[in-house]
Amino acid sequence: MSTTTSTTATALGRTWSPATRYRRSLWLLTSRDLRVRYSTSALGWVWSILDPLLMAGIYWFVFTQVFQRGINHEPYIVFLMAALLPWTWFTGAVGDSTKAFTRDAKLIRSTTIPRSIWVTRIVLSKGIEFLLSLPVLALFIIASQFTAHPAVLNWQLVYFVPAIILQAVLTVGIGLVVAPLVVFFRDLERAVRLILRLAFYASPIIFSLDDLRRVHPAFELIGSFNPLTGIMSLYRAGLFPKELDWFSIAISAGMTVVLFVIGLLVFRRCLPAVLKEI
């Protein structure tokens, strides 16, 4: 066992109350993830924002300069970043959840903390990266003030908080399903990557729910049942008030609860077999 793994296992084995132990263990593992991820990188956390920045730049150029698509959502670059940053958190956490058990098998076997923490710490570490990337969105908002279509903040910016909470719960729920199943079905790891790629284009990131409505009302209804639709609506409401759609938000909240419960049930059912398999 490596020194890092041994030290972490010792720290996790200390005697605290269950709630305190869970919180301390969660933070220990999360900070360990962040240190390992960036300790050997010269650019550090900058890498976590380069991907959404590059994607935003490409889509902004294609849709506003080539197809002149962004006229309904100006400034379009802010419209994109307000959804791309949360999406990066979501896809990164779900993708890493496929390795939650296989990556740290020795450490998981040597500790007795609730095994769900191995999924929760991934969501938390990616969530911290998301929060650290928000200044980039702020810079785009400030830069837009010097353009013909400046971004305007409004009081609905407070909905950013429930959006973060909903996304965290949703991502944990999905992670609790994916993490144990990958142990038995290794091809699921690649399948998840493909599904996430499709989910990007099926989610209101480069478009809005209103865009679907203009294509056909049925598309709007179908799009509302994507659990990310209402969440993205909450993220964008503080900058684009018309994006707030309570119907899709209610569906997102309901589906988030359902997926979280399903995640808990699947995780508990699979855990004994997972511990034997790893």
Automatic annotation (TrEMBL):
Q: Which UniProt keywords apply?
A: Antibiotic resistance, Cell inner membrane, Cell membrane, Membrane, Transmembrane, Transmembrane helix, Transport
Where are the membrane-spanning stretches? Answer: 42-63, 75-94, 130-148, 160-184, 191-209, 246-267
Q: Which GO terms describe its molecular function?
A: ABC-type transporter activity
Family annotation (Pfam families): ABC2_membrane (PF01061)
- The keyword Transferase appears for this protein: no
Domain ABC transmembrane type-2 residues, every copy: 43-270
Question: Quick one: a GO biological-process term for this protein?
Answer: lipopolysaccharide transport
- In its keyword annotation, does this UniProt entry include Transmembrane? yes
- Look up the coiled coil feature and give its residue ranges: none
Cellular component, GO annotation: ATP-binding cassette (ABC) transporter complex
List locations, semicolon-separated. Cell inner membrane; Cell membrane
Give the way it sits in the membrane. Answer: Multi-pass membrane protein
Q: Which family does it belong to?
A: Belongs to the ABC-2 integral membrane protein family.
What is the name of this protein?
Transport permease protein
What lineage, starting at the top, does this entry show? Answer: Bacteria, Bacillati, Actinomycetota, Actinomycetes, Micrococcales
